[in-house]
Amino acid sequence: MRLTTFLGLLLLTTYALCNTIEVTWNVGVHPNNTINVGDTIMWITTDGLQHTVTSDDRTLLVSPTIQAGTSVDRFQHTFTDTGTFNYFCTVHGALLMSGTVIVETPGGGNQTNITALPILPVLECVDQNGDGSITAFFGYYNPNEENVTIPLGALNNVAGGDLPVETFEAGRQTRGFSATGDAASNITWAITSGGVQNMAVATNRSRSCSVSDVAPPGEVIPLLNCTVVQGNSYTAFLSYINTGFEPIELPDGESNQVFFVSPTENVVGFPIITSFAPGEGVAFNVTMPLNTVMTWQVINDYTGTSRSVRVTSNSPSCSPCSQPVV
Fold this sequence. Notes:
Layout: E1 9-10, E2 14-15, E3 20-24, E4 32-36, E5 40-44, E6 54-55, E7 74-78, E8 83-88, E9 98-104, E10 120-128, E11 133-142, E12 148-149, E13 156-159, E14 167-168, E15 171-182, E16 187-193, E17 196-202, E18 220-230, E19 233-242, E20 248-249, E21 256-261, E22 266-269, E23 275-276, E24 279-289, E25 293-299, E26 306-311, E27 324-325
Parallel strand pairs: 3-5, 4-9
Antiparallel strand pairs: 1-24, 2-27, 5-7, 6-8, 8-9, 10-11, 11-15, 12-14, 13-16, 16-17, 18-19, 19-24, 20-23, 21-22, 21-25, 25-26
């Protein structure tokens, strides 16, 4: 059956990622912030004095009086248009308290350390060293248009091997680094970015570098963006990453299917998307009862292994900035 039997299905276009930036707003400060459209600035005062956040035009930003230790110690505003916006405190004047917010379109400024889309580590191949150890060669796919830096540590680490890279260039990069470890154990590179953890695992049974020194191109990774609960049902918004440079076709059937499990029935369906363009793309959304668990599974031809994403009504909720823009 097709997913249209589950209340409704809709192709979407794009998703926004927004941030909230906290700014200390005390006497003597002159903050200057560069943000993206859709981002929010939150001004917080801590010096015990009364302040306002007022734009020069006295129209865009018109805050009440804020003061630390009271119920109103902060003020926030979400910027929806590009431009340069100046503001000041009407109590102390611009000489003592003023600031500027520069609002750009996403991708228009420095995106270092900001990951709108998750980075995918890729195992290229493995060499058997003949001394009880293996050397794994790793690459990665960065679907963002800009380079991204993820410092070594909890968000970027290798278990059982050497240290990975920290700066990820845009696009598919092959053989970024190698890691040597015990052949009896796994070498796992884990990256957490864009709110998603992805891993590449090397074992002594992984593809030999004598066969190919880079991973075959193209793999579809299903992703969950977020969910919206409405009454007795919820809607899941899904996307995907195609790690290759060419479109991938995954027809209905065992290679591309959706499983719905509820207390009363188990149903197998098929998504309406069968062609996956390179990079990140919107897949579909589906609305279902709160007690239903959905799993979207794809099987990539060149590996024969499955990739899947599991969704429940308790999965991450859509914020105003993670919901789709139709």
